[in-house]
Amino acid sequence: MLKEIFAILLFFMTVRYTNFKIPKLGDRLMEKKRTSSALCIALIAVLTAVVVVFTIVVKIPTPTKGYLNLADLAICFIAFTFSPITAFIAGGLGTCLADIISGYPQWAPISFLVHGLEGLLVSMIVRRTSEQVREGFKVPAYRVILAMIICIVVVAGGYFVLGATVMSIGWGAAAAGIPGNVAQAGIGVVAGYALSRSVIKAYPPVQGLL
Fold first, then answer.
1. What is the pLDDT of residue 181?
2. Please, are residues 80 and 28 in contact by the beta-carbon 8 Å criterion?
3. Concatenated DSSP letters for 167-195?
4. Sign of CA dihedral 178, 180, 181, 183
5. Residue 85 contacts by C-beta under 8 Å, 6 or more apart in sequence?
6. Backbone angles phi, psi at 70, to 5 degrees
7. Is 199 left (phi over 0), alpha (psi -120 to 50) or beta?
8. Using one digit for the tens of pLDDT, what is the confidence trace for 5-44?
9. Distance CA 40, CA 43 (A)
């Protein structure tokens, strides 16, 4: 319980001390002004904190001595809404910090690699050009499906291979974690995409913040 409280406090502290304000960023975007590097860092910091919170709030222990969580939902939301580099940093760093906070520091480097790559690849697959964003171009269904397949392969496959080799938990134990990781990644893509669509519909300028 203390870990969950710490994660939530981390999120609110990040928002407070980065002076992150969505309306201000949106106004700058609508006026066609470049977002300053300081505001970019603030946004990435907030998104990283969001991933930490989603990773820690719900934890289901697995046979691999790790845990299932809602990290992929947050990462896929970021991947569908923002840039590949933003999804890579927030996804990788957020899950890495969550592992350390949750008492699984041995998994932190692997989580950074697997979830960082997940965010990067998913975002690259569904990425739209600035012109397409202005014209309201929607991501085609086949690209969303491809993103789901890649997400599942990266997450389930990454933890399977790295768990068995780097963590030395054994191929049998690593294989036992595949179904849970497949479900976590698949649900994460679907829910993350739905959340992204809702946020973009409610606040279109968010698409161009990063």
1. 94
2. no
3. S---HHHHHHTHHHHHHHHHHHHHHHHHH
4. positive
5. 120
6. -100, 20
7. alpha
8. 444 444 555 555 455 444 454 554 455 455 567 788 899 9
9. 5
Whose CA is closest to 132, among 187, 207, 192?
207
Q: Which residue has the tokens 């989603």?
A: 54
Domain boundaries, the chain: 2-208
* CATH architecture assigned to 2-208: Orthogonal Bundle (1.10)
How many CB atoms are closer than 10 A to CB 164? 18
Place of tokens 């068995």: 164
Which positions ≥6 away from 75 have C-beta within 8 Å? 51, 87, 90, 91, 94, 95, 115, 118, 119, 122, 188, 192
